[in-house]
Amino acid sequence: MTAILGISAYYHDSAAALVVNGEIVAAAQEERFTRRKHDHEFPTHAIEYCLNEAGLQPEHIDYVGFYDKPLLTFERLLETYLAYAPIGFSSFVKAMPLWLRQKLHVPREIRRGLNGNYGKRFVFLKHHESHAASAFYPSPFDEAAILTMDGVGEWATASYGYGKDNKIKMIGELRFPHSLGLLYSAFTYFCGFKVNGDEYKLMGLAPFGEPAYVDLILENLINLHEDGSFQMDMSYFNYCAGLTMTSRKFDQLFGGPPRALEGPMTQREMDMAASVQKVTEKIVLRMAHHVKDHTGMANLCMAGGVALNCVSNGLLLRENVFDDVWIQPAAGDAGGALGSAQFIWHQLLDKPRASRSRDTQKGSQLGPAYTDEDIHIALEKSGARFDFIEDNDQLCDRVADEIIAGKAVGWFQGRMEFGPRALGCRSIIGDARSPDMQGIINMKVKFREGFRPFAPVVLQEHVHEYFNMPEGYESPYMLLVAPVEEGKRTARDVAGRSGLDTVKDVRSVIPAVTHVDYSARVQTIDRDRHGLFHKLMTAFYRKTGCPVLINTSFNLGWDPIVCAPEDAIDTFMSCDLDVLCMGNYVLRKDDQPAVANTLNGGGDSELQRLMLSPCHGASLTYAESACVCSECGYSFPMNDGIWQMFYPHENIDQPGDVTETVKSFYEETPFPNYDDHDSVRALMDKARRGGYARALDLAIPPNSKVLEVGCGTGQLTNFLGIACREVVGADLCLNSLRLGEAFRRKHGLDRVRFAQMNLFRPCFGREQFDVVLCNGVLHHTGAPYHGYEGLVPLVKPGGHIVIGLYNTYGRLLTDLRRQLFRITGGHAQWIDPILRRSKHGDAQRRAWFADQYRHPHESKHTIDEVLQWFDNTGVEFIRGVPAVKPDASLMEYQNLFEPEARGTPLEHRLVELREIVTGSKEGGFFLMIGRKMEERSHVAA
Prior knowledge:
Helix content is 36%, strand content 18%. The protein is an alpha/beta fold. The chain folds into 4 domains: 3-126 and 334-364, Nucleotidyltransferase, domain 5 (2-Layer Sandwich); 173-327, 2-Layer Sandwich (Nucleotidyltransferase, domain 5), CATH 3.30.420.40; 372-591, Carbamoyltransferase, C-terminal domain (DHBP synthase, Alpha-Beta Complex), CATH 3.90.870; 644-937, Rossmann fold. α6 (127-136) crosses α13 (333-348). The longest helix has 29 residues, at 267-295. The chain is globular and about 90 Å long.
């Protein structure tokens, strides 16, 4: 037995692949295990999976292949920095530490990653050699031309050659800085998308525009030759030495600066996308003709990131430059791991390739699989409601019926795919006949741009009926775009729409997968490769007469494709996915308690079940627009969808009452509204960037009931309610609540409700909530402890309470700045760390300044003080943020509900003294998290 491990790491999409006796046994990207998209770190988890799949240990490996020659790449970096010096100094300083610490010591890093148990040979391939091997060796061809294109390897940006039997030979290459991949990435950057990740968005945007800039690109940016090679005018680009892709000269050529990341989309960006796509197609066609002329081969194999441009691939196939084309499904850097392992087996060890009629990529189903037992354990742990359907025919019939009913389905079966595409194992599927399904999945499931197209999956025997492809043609890897057949197109219902709005046009009998130019990225499904998925599609075809479904990757827009059952459950619960089918288990969103409660009479009825009279704790009777205390008859109105449950406590009418003063302050100075993120996706982006909201989202289980006291404009409340939870936001400021309620209504967040409430007079019954949040509210009351004491009874035994307060020590510098602002009349605001950050808008800056330096009342507290609160009320301390011990992890928002050591008073004081400096950045704010103990363990005050 000969076991060969291939590795790609440190640049983009780290991965590992294992080849045993020439057979591809396993391959996976590191991101799927770490849940960090495009993870470039050493692929420890992917290697562990590959070895476990084969039942091997590191000492059983015979060869380790690495997909790149780091010393040559380092040489390119140094020569480039020197050529542009001193312009690239900041980029140089940023890059060098990682190179000197890690990237120049790959053998050491690999040995460390294999626990020191590997002492045999390392083989370092050139980057494009790895791509070439990954393209040819798994292909179905005995001989074929090879074309690789990407951003850059060591020096090469494109290369060509041929493979014959078990050998490959590379003939020529295009060299850095002239690169088709980097040209496309430059336009990706300029159009407001992320480089090395969002290039496919630019490809999806292109059909909405006109190729108005093609001549401008060819006349100014590149000098294109007949053989497809070209030179770029580097004065328009900045990637050699700077931290951006394009220069100011590029801005001038295209009429202004780059679009801001996620900013408004204009016709310019659409036309630029269309133009660079046309230029890309022109270059690829010229390169292909040149490769054909110089190799004489009938077939072509492709790899490298540019080979994922399926529009160019489809054009190449239709132009008949070659008889057939095979593209590596993991065409990017991840595929280099597989290529390096196969190169060692065939080229270096001279092992033959068996003749084959199909590729040996195994449908790219090379990742981990999970048994029904694994799935059942994950489901039980999640607390989700589910059904088990043992018979596969009945399972497929059930799921097919859900799809026909308009449901979006998460499909989790068999081995995970290797590469960037979900191919029917970790997929979201839906009815391609539905004109609404594209928008539903984009906006409510994936939380991504509405213009993004979806790929069709079609039973292979019917592919020619729906798409301009030969009868029975295989396209199992979703790498070719083809036009929808004329006979399946319909008269366009444009309804006066233009630009991105044309995505709503009904263009064919399968509108959900027909892009605006009548194209579709086709994947064919056959019984041999796709097993249960083929059975599902057959059931759908039998019931509807349509052999086509939507297939898109099973993930949210910012996450990697799901790997394990836990990932699938988390994703299902975090969006509006209707159904999840994992193995033989089926979950329906409508069956989950949080959804079932709101469906049963609506969210308003569920809120009414939670509420009691704040004046006497008695039950309420409800009329159309008011509710009445059953004991005293006091009436509470509903306005703008918000129950006004504010009831005064004892001192409310006395002069100088803190509650009334603070209430008036926030009515006059509300926090900023949703203008900068008036969409669910934008709200989620903001929450994830903030850290705390994302950590809460991870910590609070699905189907929980959550109360946020002092919710302000309800942004956190709405964010937490996007997932499968019931969330109530309460605040004393009605103006702020109206903003939260307007957002909730606009985006259909049915599991969220808002109520006006005095926290000293809660309007909810005892032990109703799994989590109560009270961030930054108690220190603006006249009696913080009594306010906290009134919230604890609302928490269920075993539930969590999170309170945020100002720290006595962390607030010292803020107090000093407040005095300076009083002296200067509010000038010199640059002395505040938050106000120095240019990324904040004017409204945010004004709200921060008012809250920190103009607030009419605040109190300050210590860790030991709050711990005493917990002890008095039967609440077990879980953790503090920042941590209450000086030697605790600095990862503040990790595992919020995981207990940490309570620490000693001395340790608390050391932490608080440190907060004098570090705490000033956030105004001395700190969190204390506790878990309510059972009543029998309650410690009396």
